[in-house]
Write a structure and sequence with these properties.
The chain is an alpha/beta fold. Bound molecules: NADP nicotinamide-adenine-dinucleotide phosphate.
Length: about 300
């Protein structure tokens, strides 16, 4: 797979990123074995960028990945490791505390420490703020990022699920480039196309990374609002296009994302080795502007004005 720069950096990422959210499954022996197989399949297929978060599997996903790196340390040299933090679930230690977002210096520093330990690595190539904290203090975040950079624990920074105004606000104080904004983009959720997220990415060379790229197609999207008749209409168009491009419907969806000139990097979250490999077919489709709009029309149930 060809590699491309992330944001304004020399980090060279495969265009498809492998998402590690599901690799530990239900943490049974069987699921852990499947997760390891999935990661090896991704490495063999040329994915060099792996997406984590402190909360995936309650830490079990990073743990599994770290065990692979401990056993085969040479793999680390060629890969980009991303992790994220800020979502703090309810926990037993403090039953009073609700699920919350936390960009405080103390929390971010301790979360990065935890990720480094679980992943068996000394540095994260990329650290993302997972979801915007309503109590975001740009000066505190700036201080935290500078400390993480100076200590060598994090090389680069980015954000996730940020609105353009939040990216602009943080970037104005940071003094370091935000390389990526990781947001949900799929056939159901096209907010990023309409709310200025992809415009800002193009304008400022920020790489948009699409999480759950197949939501609403391979499985119900988060907060799915499609009616059965919407799904039938979209499936009908996808079937036609899949025949035309001699591929599968879900690969058409990836091609639809890849066509956007902001250069979206989809994160592939399948744990099925065949699908992890087959996602690369989307990179080779010569997907047309006309088909892009036909699919948008099928999704919206009406043509653009
Ligand atoms: N920043 C954020 O807030 C955020 C939020 C969510 C996720 N993420 C990141 O995004 C990554 C990708 O998310 P995701 O796993 O939801 O993405 P996805 O690739 O859209 O979905 C993967 C899921 O779809 C299934 N699937 C894939 N192809 C299929 C097909 N052809 N038919 C039926 N089912 C199919 C997979 O099942 P199998 O495993 O059985 O193939 C798996 O359950 C995560 O791993 C995580 O790294 C980030």
């Amino acid at each position: 797979m060809k590699n491309y720069s992330l944001g304004k950096s020399n980090l060279q990422s495969s265009r498809l990123i492998y998402g590690c959210m599901r690799i530990a499954g239900d943490q049974s022996v069987n699921d852990i074995a499947n997760g390891k197989l999935a990661v090896h399949s991704a490495i063999d297929a040329g994915y060099n960028h792996f997406d984590h978060a402190d909360i995936y599997g309650g830490g079990a996903s990073e743990q599994l990945f770290g065990e692979l790196l401990k056993r085969s340390p040479h793999l680390r040299e060629k890969m980009i490791l991303t992790s994220k933090a800020s979502i703090r679930p309810k926990n037993n230690e403090n039953p009073y505390a609700p699920t919350r977002y936390d960009f405080s210096k103390q929390y971010i520093l301790s979360s990065v420490e935890g990720s480094l330990k679980r992943l068996h690595t000394e540095q994260l190539d990329l650290f993302l703020l997972h979801r915007p904290d309503y109590l975001l203090d740009i000066h505190e975040v700036t201080e935290t990022f500078k400390q993480l950079k100076a200590s060598g624990k994090v090389a680069h920074f980015g954000v996730s699920n940020f609105k353009p105004s939040q990216v602009a606000m943080l970037q104005s104080a940071l003094g370091l480039p935000l390389l990526v904004n990781q947001v949900e983009i799929n056939i159901h959720n096209i907010d990023a196309l309409n709310d200025g997220t992809l415009d800002q990415c193009q304008q400022h060379s920020i790489t948009p990374i699409a999480w759950c790229p197949l939501g609403g197609v391979a499985y119900a999207a988060w907060g799915n609002t499609f009616l059965a008749k919407d799904e039938q209409r979209i499936a009908g168009e996808l079937t036609l296009q899949a025949q035309k491009y001699n591929c599968e419907a879900w690969q058409v969806i990836l091609a639809w994302l890849l066509k956007h000139p902001a250069d979206i990097f989809p994160i592939i979250g399948s744990t099925t080795p065949e699908r992890i490999v087959a996602a690369k077919v989307a990179l080779e489709l010569n997907y047309s502007r006309e088909d892009w709009y036909r699919l948008l029309e099928a999704r919206n149930g009406q043509s653009v004005p």
